[in-house]
Fold these 3 entries.
Entry 1:
Amino acid sequence: MNTKRLPPGGRILIASHNLGKVREIGALLVGLGLTCDSVGDLGLEEPEETAATFAGNAELKALAAALAAGRVSLADDSGLAVDALGGAPGIYSARWAGPEKDFQSAMKTVEDALQAEAKEGVVDRRARFVCALSLAWPDGHVETFQGEIAGHLVWPPRGERGFGYDPVFVPEGEDMTFGEMDPDHKHRISHRARAFEKLLVRLSESEVVGASQDAIGR
Ligand code: IMP
């Protein structure tokens, strides 16, 4: 039985300065009667992502916010892991696009690396997107929920929808890339959706409404 609860009023601090992410997460939490604000609203800095895993980075961001603000905080970390590249770009997915956030170039870098790994002319194109979501309490307690979606990479990129590596990723059981498919469909099946499903189960187990003051774990 998990004894950790959410704060009175069910308010969660989102440990991200990315407005799109804050909005997307906020929209999901509203359905549970929770409200949220973000570290940007409080003028808090995001820490450097120094961990070696998605979960490690999500935990470090959530904990930094929880400790600085004294509030239950939520952070995420995500990226593309390519089998033939030993999981790269992985936690460096955003960095492979450089300061210009040039994902055409990042996708080409992945494709070139894949070709270089070809064995007897056969390229192993398997890859997956991973998303880790961490919920941290001000006493240092952290819970992490991870979602993944397996698929394969195509070349050249296809589709103008989505973002990042979406145009080269075809999820298992689908024909279209994430960049071609209806975004609503992507959001239902994605790594992020799967991590959120687990988080929402956990949140709905908490006594959000009428939680007592000691619920915030201090
Ligand atoms: P972060 O979690 O904001 O650090 O993002 C990591 C990077 O992973 C993003 O900049 C994208 O390059 C990539 N990424 C994460 N999720 C997706 C996705 O759903 N589609 C495409 N790229 C993604």
Entry 2:
Amino acid sequence: MKNIILTGFMGTGKSSVGKELALRLNYRYIDLDALIVAEAGISINEIFVRSGEAVFRSLESKILVSLKGEEGIVLSTGGGAVIADENRHVLHTLGAVINLSASAEEILHRLQHEHDRPLLNDDKSLDRIRELISRREPFYADADFRIETSGRFIAQIVDEILLLLKRCETRGEA
Ligand code: S3P
């Protein structure tokens, strides 16, 4: 398996799962948002405030494209990285795309004390989370595997992913 790509809404556990998965596979862990922050030299909140979402999205796409050719990475993507068709195409070219999901209630619980999600900073309500998730559902569904994370430990999720990948390899799909 070349690379593992984690997609999913904010708070679905992409970073925690990604880090643990990378350790277990002896792959490098890359966080797309961290690369964006490094490139911009300011926080994601600041990018949204100073330049707007469109500028953030174009940085996101540019950095994603620059990852083409990488091997042996676990990449966790920001929750909106799957919206653009070209981005999803790049993700599938990079490796196996695994979508993590969680209930809106669980997401709210996980993010309630966070203030670094510009799309939820003004309205962190269940309705807002549900609305964004349902708008994005077709893009999250564009994945090789989907895993529900609500009420589960990171280690269980990682075990499930490793099992799925092993089955693919056995069938010669990876
Ligand atoms: C976003 C999710 C964030 C970050 C940015 C936009 C989104 O990443 O990329 O705030 O559009 O859902 P996380 O999913 O890692 O929180």
Entry 3:
Amino acid sequence: MLRPLQGVTMSEAIESLLKENRRFEPPTDFARQARVSSREAYDAMYRESLDDPDTFWRRETSALVFRTPWTKVLEWNLPHARWFLGATLNVTESCLDRHLSTATATKTALLWEGEDGSTRTVTYAELHEKTVRLAGALKQLGVQKGDRVAIYMGMVPEVSVAMLACARIGAVHTVVFGGFSADALRDRIHDSQAKVVITQDGASRRGQVVPLKATVDKALSQPEAKSATHTIVYRHLGSERCRIDMKEGRDAWWDDVLASAPASCEPEIVDAEHPLFILYTSGSTGKPKGVLHTTGGYLAGAHVTSKYVFDLREDDIYWCTADVGWVTGHSYLVYGPLSNGATCFMYEGAPNYPDWARFWRMIEQHKITILYTAPTAIRACMRQGDTWPAKHDLSSLRLLGTVGEPINPEAWVWYHQTIGGGRCPIVDTWWQTETGSIMMATLPGAVAAKPGSTGLPFFGVAPDVVTQEGDPVGANQGGLLVLRKPWPSMFRTLWQDDERFRQGYFSTIKDCYFTGDGARRDEDGYMWVVGRIDDVLNVAGHRIGTAEIESALVSHPAVAEAAAVGRPDDIKGTALVVFVSLRPGSTAGPELRDKLAEHVAKEIGRFARPDLIRFTDALPKTRSGKIMRRLLKDVASGRESTGDTSTLEDLGVLAKLRQDQE
Ligand code: PRX
């Protein structure tokens, strides 16, 4: 179901973005050496990618290892695409083995800093060695091609090893963000029927211990998670900081299984369409969706976008701040950069720990050249003022990226001036868990950036803005953002739910993939994405389904009904506001408010805790009984409702809500 945008109406959002007309041409020095160094070069490659995808993708994937080349580039039986038909490969050969016979073998693949300031480096050769050992260990545990393995870890180099080890043997990983609760982990293990869980004792976050293994214990103690018969536990914090219990016969230490595993493990060569991973994401119902990505197309997308969008160079130190539990971490911390032989920086902890200079100190210390982060982090840093970045030498930076939500021009300009010193191009990248890799970007060196716009389509991508009926709208008109053609890294289905895949993405607009976003395209063809227009909220860059929050709340005995909506927020982009009506006998008040927030944290994870819980006697409903979220959104944002309220059953409910606010 489509609704007005989070917190704002489509026309308001578009109006504010329409006012933005600054252009930032690619810096001359950057453009001179860029991989795509002019608009003409971009146009030619873009045209080729659509007109002759076979030639385009053969050339652009030539650095990757395909054991058998493809015989046909694409088969498109809407909504199902198959790319690179007949090709066989193992992604770890492209990410690791291919580098071993070159100087890249001794190059740092991962440069890591823990929250406590300790550092580690892992070369490509070492990453390979760890990966094949863990792959062998997984085999010894009985994991076979196609089996699922859940990964519940923090930001340590071993999380990349765990993902690659699964890929090495053709197992399908499902990484569960370490901020998810035991119940959420249990649900994902159940849905994917994962056989093994790879975890670590604990992770550091703002100086506190995140008890990952203990959470796995809780998840596995429930019958729904019985498919997982083994865990592998990486010792990160050690027993002094994080005591854990090991269950005999089920839990094994990472070091022990690696020590007893064979030193080599031949890669399982799989079909290009073999599943690589499942990543759960929020949708419009309470049940998370298992987005399924396959091997050849996903790797091609992650590889080629990393190379061009970040203009990756041999000597770059590249930092993507995303957690590996989200898709950005998968594509731009693991598969994309490693398949390009890049050096990736990985940071374990919080951006403001111990203070707001943390990011900038690490950039100076590690001479980071590319920074890829989210608007919410940029806005939070901006709010702290320029003194923090001013303490550090940021001159190593040459490119800045942003992802996850629309960036407001003010934050864009701050990022450009204060962090990038006015000399670094900013790539605003639009994409989704479902798209696997970047779909639109202000390609650095090739095109001018306009603050707030995600620029032009990446190669092979055909976006359009259409009406609800599917008709293209004119320049600067708002509409629904769709993708008209299949692209290699597109998800192939939803795990065990192909019907939801069809219905959710391909039934709204005929013959197109519907993104769930609203957008407008300006007279230069630049896209301005304004945000979700479905039942999904983007809170501080985290994708949260309103239905997930609502079903978590109504599972609490005190709650009769709940409605979750977004409200514009200066830092988070959108804040999560919930309206709750209680069952008879329950008393509204601060105590229950805390209990309900805790309940959401337990059901989903702390990151999904509502920013505000409001108690109400009743929720505004239509005569047919549907909750009118649009009105609640207006109330939450302190706006007058301009829309139609004629279907509202009881206007008194709305008046009361407004009154309570005042
Ligand atoms: O609304 C869009 C927003 O994030 C959504 C996808 O969320 P997720 O699957 O969690 O993936 C996030 C990281 C790829 C999109 O539907 N979004 C992502 N990037 C941008 C964006 N909105 C505006 N500008 C962006 N650059």
